Amino acid sequence: MSKLGSYDVHAFADVFPLIEGEEFDEMVLDVKRNGLRDPILLNHDRTVLIDGRNRYRACEAANAEMFFETLPAEQSEAEILDLIVSKNISRRQLTAGQRAFLALEYEKAFEEGAKERQREAGRHRAAQADAQVTGLQLPADRREAVTERHDREATATAARTVGASQRSVQRAKTVETYAPELVEKVKSGEMALDQADKQARQRRRDMPEAAPLSKPGPVILTLRTYDGKEVSYNKPIGQATFNSTDGEGISWARWSWNPVTGCLHGCDYCYAREITLRFKQVNPAGFTPLLHDERLNAPKNTRIPEHHISDPSWKRVFVCSMADLYGRWVPEEWILQVHSSMLANPQWEYLLLTKFPARYNKVDLPPSAWVGTSVDEQKRVRIAEDAFRQIDGVKVKWLSIEPLKEPLKFTDLSMFDWVVIGAQTETWQGEGDQRKQVPAFSPPFEWVVNLVNQAREAGCRVHLKPNLVNGKPGMLLPNEYPAGDVQEADSGPDNEPNIWKP
C-alpha cells in the first residue's frame, strides 16, 4: 500500500494510473487559479485515501489548501471498491486490456473480502472451549466446488463493475499466469490484450506436462518450552489470527490471543489448565509454558467484521488467556517479542493480566493496553499496590479479584481504574487416576460488599463477574432471622397459618 503524505492509499485506487505530463501540469495550474474544486475522499477513520490521488498531488505542487470528505463507518469494503471504480472509470480513456486488468485487480480485492467473511464464519463455529482452534474446514470435494463457484461469481462481478467482458478478464488471468512480463505492456497500452493472450497461450501449450502432484502432508514446526525443550507442532493452515470469544466470561473483549501458553503457578482452581489437558491434540506440551512464535503476527492479520466495526469490545483482545505472560519463568525474549507485536499494531486494545505485576515495569507497555493484575490472596495485595503505583501512560489499570478466596483488605485502590470481582467456579484437575474435582467456592456477601465500598471510595469502576450473581456458584447472601424459633415466627400454634386478629 503506497502513501501520500500521512495517508495510506487504498490498494485498489492505486491500480489506476496517475495523471502525468501536460495533463497533470494543467491540473496544477487550475488548482492555483481556482483552488481545489472537489474534496479528497478518506475512509471513516481518516487514515486511508480512497479517491483524489491526483488532486492531492496537484495541491501539493500548487501549494494550495486541501479539503477532505470522510466516508461513513458503516460503508462496506465492497461498496468502497464500487465507489473507487465509479470515480475513476469515467475519468479515464481505457483500452479493453486496461479494463480487463482493472477487473482482475477488483476481483482480487473482492475475493479477499469474501475470504475474510469466511474466516469470521469459521471462527464463530469454532469450539470455544479450545482457544487454539481457528475454525472448521469443508471436505475437500465440497471446498473445491464452492471455490469454483465463487471464482465464477467474482469474475462476473468484477467484469460487470469495470465494464469489461468476462472473456477479457479470463485472458488477463492467462497473461498474468503464463506471460507476466507482458502485463505492464498491456496496462500501459503498448500491447493489445489479444496479442498478449496469444503469446501466453502458446507458452502454456509449450510447457511440459506436469506429473500428478501427491497430496502434501502437514508442515511440522519446532516450538520450544520455557526450559528449551523442543516440541513438534502441526503448522495451522492459513495466517495466524485472533480467536473470537463468545460467552459472558470475558464479555468486555471479543478476542483472545495466545502467543504463549502454559503456566507454573499451580493454582488448584485453574480453568486454563483444565481446558489444556482436556484437548491434548492441540496442546502437545500440555500446560508447560510454550512460545507459539507462529502466532505473533495475529494482531496484523486480524480484521474486525464489518457489522461489528462500531462495537468497542471487538477492538479488545485478551492476551495470553491460557498463560501468565509475565510469570517469573517466562524468558524476557518471549515477553519482548509479544510486546513488539502489540506496539506495532496499536489499533487493538490489549488486555493484560498477571500475578507478577512487577515485570510490567521492565518493558514498554502499549498505550492502548488494559494493564491488570490478579489478586486472590492477601499476600498478593502489597505486590499489586507497589507495582501499580509505578505504572502510567496506559489506557486502563485494572484489578482482577477472581476467585475471591478470602477477605481482602487494600491500603489504597486509587491506582486502579477498574475492579473486577468473581467467585471460584468448579473445575476438574489432573489426569487419569489423579483427576479430581475442585469444588466451587462462593465468597460471603460481606467480603464482596467491603471491596465494592473500598473501590467506590477510591473512584474505581466495579464489575461483578456473572459467576457471583447467577448462582454458578454465586455468593453467600445474608440469610438471617430474629432470635428465636423461625417456625414460631412464621406460623401460629399447631403450625396453623397466621391470620389478622380482629
Structure write-up:
- It contains 15 helices and 19 strands.
- By secondary structure, the chain is an alpha/beta fold.
- The strands form four sheets. The protein has an eight-stranded mixed β-sheet. Strands 1-2-4-3-5 form a five-stranded mixed β-sheet.
- Helix 6 packs across helix 8.
- The chain is elongated.
- The termini are far apart.
Cα radius of gyration in angstroms: 31 Å
What is the assembly state of the chains in this entry?
Answer: single chain
Instruction: Give the % helix.
Output: 25-40%
Task: Report the strand count.
Answer: 19
For the largest beta-sheet, the strand count, sense and barrel status come to: 8 strands, mixed
Mean pLDDT level: 83
How many DSSP helices? 15
**Widest sheet: strand order?**
8-9-12-13-14-15-16-19
Low-confidence stretches: 125-152, 487-499
Kindly, what is the distance between the CA atoms of the first and last residues, rounded to a whole number of angstroms?
A: 89 Å
Structure in a nutshell:
With about 500 residues, the chain is of the alpha/beta class. Helices cover about 35% and strands about 15% of the residues.
